[in-house]
Specification:
The protein is mostly helical. Helices cover 66% and strands 0% of the residues. It has one domain.
Length: 281
C-alpha cells in the first residue's frame, strides 16, 4: 500500500506530461484527439529506435549462438544451478544481453500508464474537440466493448499483436513461440475493459513493430553462424596462377599443354593445308 501511495505523484507527473503532449498536438496541428494518440505513439517509437536496435542485435546474437546454448542446457539438464551459471558465463564471453529484448516494452509502460489516466480524466472532463475515430469509434474514452466498433478494434489488436509477436519471438523455440502467439487471445479479455484510446495506442505500436520487423529483415540480415570445422572438412584449394607445369598440388590436369600447341607450331597446320589443297586439285 505504501508503494502505491509513493507511486501516485509519479503517475500524476506522467499524466501531466502526456496531457501536455496531446494538447500540443491537438492545438498546433489541429489533430482530433484520437489521431493525436496515434502521433504520440509514433513519436514514442521513434525515440525508442536506439533501444530497438539493441533489441534486434540481442535477438540476432541469441539466434546465432542458439546451438551452443542448447548444448549447455543438455549438458547440465540435471543441474539447473550449474546450467544457469554456465549460461551466464557464456553470455558474458559473447557479449549477449537477454534482457535487451525487453527494453522497448518496458520503456513504453510509463507512456501506457500516463495515457490510461489521461483518458480517465478526459472521460470525467471532456475536452473541446472530436473524441471519435474513423466513425466506428464514437468516443475513445469509452470501454472497448461498449460499442460495436470496439469489437472491430479488438480484432485488429489481436491480429497486430500476433504479427508483432511473430517478429519479436524469432529466437524462441517452437513451444515458446506458440505460447506467445496465443497470449493475445488471452489478454484480449483484459484489454476489452480498457478505454478505446488505449487500445488504439497498442494497435499503433504493434503495427509499428510489424513494419520495423519487415524493414530490419532486409537491412539487417541474420549474422552467419560460426563455422564448425571438423576432421572431414576439406581444406581450401590454393590458387596456382604461377603455372610451372609440375609444381605439385594437382595443377597438372588443370592446364594441359597439348591443346594450344597446334596453333603455336607450324608443322601440323602445313600438313593439313597440303592435304586439303591436294584434294581440291
Amino acid at each position: 500500500m505504501n508503494a502505491i501511495l509513493a507511486a501516485l505523484p509519479i503517475i500524476g507527473q506522467l499524466e501531466t506530461v502526456a496531457r501536455h503532449v496531446l494538447d500540443w498536438l491537438h492545438v498546433t496541428f489541429h489533430l482530433p484527439w484520437a489521431w493525436a494518440i496515434v502521433v504520440l505513439t509514433i513519436i514514442v517509437r521513434m525515440l525508442l529506435v536506439p533501444l530497438t536496435v539493441k533489441q534486434i542485435h540481442s535477438m540476432q546474437n541469441l539466434q546465432r549462438f542458439a546451438p551452443q546454448m542448447k548444448e549447455i542446457q543438455k549438458k547440465y539438464k540435471n543441474d539447473k544451478q550449474k546450467q544457469n551459471e554456465e549460461l551466464m558465463k557464456f553470455y558474458r564471453e559473447n557479449n549477449i544481453n537477454p534482457a535487451a529484448s525487453c527494453l522497448p516494452m518496458l520503456a513504453q509502460l510509463p507512456v501506457f500508464i500516463a495515457l490510461y489516466y489521461s483518458l480517465k480524466t478526459f472521460a470525467k472532463h471532456p475536452p473541446a474537440g472530436s473524441m471519435s475515430w474513423l466513425h466506428f469509434v464514437p468516443n475513445i474514452t469509452w470501454h472497448t466493448t461498449s460499442f460495436w466498433g470496439g469489437y472491430v478494434l479488438l480484432v485488429v489488436y489481436v491480429g497486430s499483436q500476433m504479427a508483432s509477436t511473430f517478429f519479436m519471438s524469432a529466437t524462441a523455440d517452437k513451444t515458446q513461440r506458440y505460447l506467445f502467439m496465443i497470449m493475445p487471445l488471452v489478454f484480449v479479455f483484459v484489454i476489452a475493459r480498457f478505454p478505446a484510446g488505449l487500445v488504439l495506442y497498442w494497435v499503433t505500436t504493434n503495427l509499428w513493430t510489424v513494419g520495423q520487423g519487415l524493414i530490419t529483415r532486409r537491412l539487417m540480415p541474420r549474422p552467419a553462424a560460426p563455422e564448425k570445422r571438423t576432421s572431414r572438412t576439406a581444406p581450401k584449394a590454393e590458387p596456382t596462377d604461377e603455372s610451372d607445369g609440375g609444381s605439385g598440388n594437382g595443377a597438372a590436369p588443370k592446364g594441359p599443354a597439348p591443346k594450344p600447341q597446334p596453333s603455336a607450331k607450324a608443322g601440323p597446320p602445313r600438313k593439313v593445308r597440303r592435304k586439303k589443297g591436294a584434294g581440291r586439285r
